[in-house]
Design brief:
about 400 residues; Rossmann fold; 15 helices; alpha/beta; 17 strands; elongated
């Protein structure tokens, strides 16, 4: 997947259309509450404007639907945050390919930036519409993909735009380059032992990942609510725990195929209600009382998983071990995060809840790489190829 980078292209006096991932959380007053994704794009943005390029940024934000108040999906607040981070003005166009965007792109001079309004305000974005893509493509001399969180999608800005710009430079930004390097290298040439830790609620969400990683990992450690579907597949009692009855046979097949590579919890931290001050009990896996629900891996499992991490050369973690937002059922996730942070292994944290957990627990600066894209990192771990990246210029 090695692709040419924005740093290898002469951008002086040229207009660069950069697809970024500014899908940031906003509060009720439309203030950005977490600017991490904007900060992650800064190296690519600065590379263009510091070298005299004219920069057009485009992104989606949320899933706006017909009839909703679109103001809560506007990228205008992101333009303000970016201006502060850059220490310079950032123009904002209140449309994507309409008259305002066209005028503001045309008015750019070297070193200036304009951010277009939410791409998903135009129905052509999600549909991959070539007409919409053609209008975006007409803005620029160079296309740069720095939106890893959307690389697994086939939206117009990700696929149809670079297709429309065939013959012009089409490159990756530093963030996408870094994400691909870590995630693809982890699978292709890992330092061993290679350990994957997979959590989350559903086996169905992780089937392909588990299946693919069983081919390349030395151990795959399972946590989160999906562990209870595996427990059911082994004939265990799961009480009121969240399970997928229609995936029990699949879980049974994965257990048989994985053998000693697939490591399931030894014990479970349970509660009789979904609240931190419920009645709690730690039981052996598969022995959850009828009136209780599993909310976290137990302490014996946490110690086992920490020992596996301590011995690892590469660790990939995707999905929390339990309800990490609700103490004391955050203990399993915390134990795993602490073990990874203290390990000498190359450590890669998938996006989504895993990234939120590692940051919330204060260990983000003690791991090798925290991915910005939950769905995209999962897709890479599944072994998927991304059309949005395959289209770009090879090194």
């Amino acid at each position: 997947m090695a692709r040419k980078s924005i740093s290898e292209i002469n951008v002086a006096g040229k207009t660069v259309l950069m697809r970024v991932d500014f899908n940031v959380p906003l509060d009720a007053d439309c203030h950005v509450t977490d600017d991490r994704r904007i900060r992650e794009a800064l190296p690519s943005i600065k590379s263009v404007i510091d070298r005299g390029g004219k920069l057009v940024l485009c992104s989606h934000l949320g899933q706006p639907k017909d009839g909703e108040d679109l103001a809560k999906y506007s990228l205008r607040p992101a333009a303000g945050v970016l201006a502060t981070l850059l220490g310079q003005a950032v123009a904002f166009a209140a449309d994507t390919v309409g008259p305002e965007a066209t005028a503001k792109v045309a008015a750019l001079t070297s070193g200036q930036v304009v951010l277009l309004e939410n791409l998903r305000f135009n129905k052509g974005e999600k549909k991959g519409d070539p007409e919409f893509a053609g209008k975006l493509a007409a803005f620029a001399d160079i296309y740069c993909n720095d939106a890893f969180g959307t690389c697994h999608r086939t939206d117009a800005s990700m696929v149809a735009v670079p297709q429309a710009m065939a013959g012009k430079p089409r490159v990756v930004g530093f963030l996408v380059q870094k994400e691909i390097q870590y995630l693809s290298d982890a699978i292709a040439t890992p330092k061993r032992p290679f350990i994957a830790i997979l959590g989350g609620a559903k086996v169905s969400d992780k089937i392909k990942v588990i299946s693919n990683l069983l081919n390349v990992c030395d151990k795959v450690l399972i946590g989160g609510a999906m562990a209870y579907t595996f427990s059911l597949a082994k004939g265990g009692k799961v009480g009121k725990s969240r399970v997928e009855p229609d995936r029990v046979e699949l879980a049974r097949e994965l257990i048989a195929r994985g053998g000693s590579k697939l490591v399931l919890p030894l014990d479970t931290h349970c509660g009789d209600a979904f609240k931190g001050d419920c009645n709690k009990v730690v039981v052996s896996a598969g022995e959850i009382p009828d009136t209780f629900e599993g909310f976290d891996i137990g302490p014996a499992t946490a110690r086992l998983y920490a020992a596996e991490v301590a011995n690892a050369g590469t660790v990939v973690w995707n999905g929390p071990m339990g309800v990490f937002e609700m103490p004391p059922f955050d203990e399993g996730t915390r134990a795993v995060a602490e073990a990874i942070a203290g390990s000498s292994a190359t450590s890669i944290i998938g996006g989504g809840d895993s990234a939120a957990a590692i940051q919330q627990l204060g260990f983000a600066d003690k791991v090798t790489h925290v991915s910005t894209g939950g769905g995209a990192s999962l897709a890479m771990l599944e072994g998927e190829k991304f059309a949005a990246v395959e289209l770009l210029d090879e090194v």
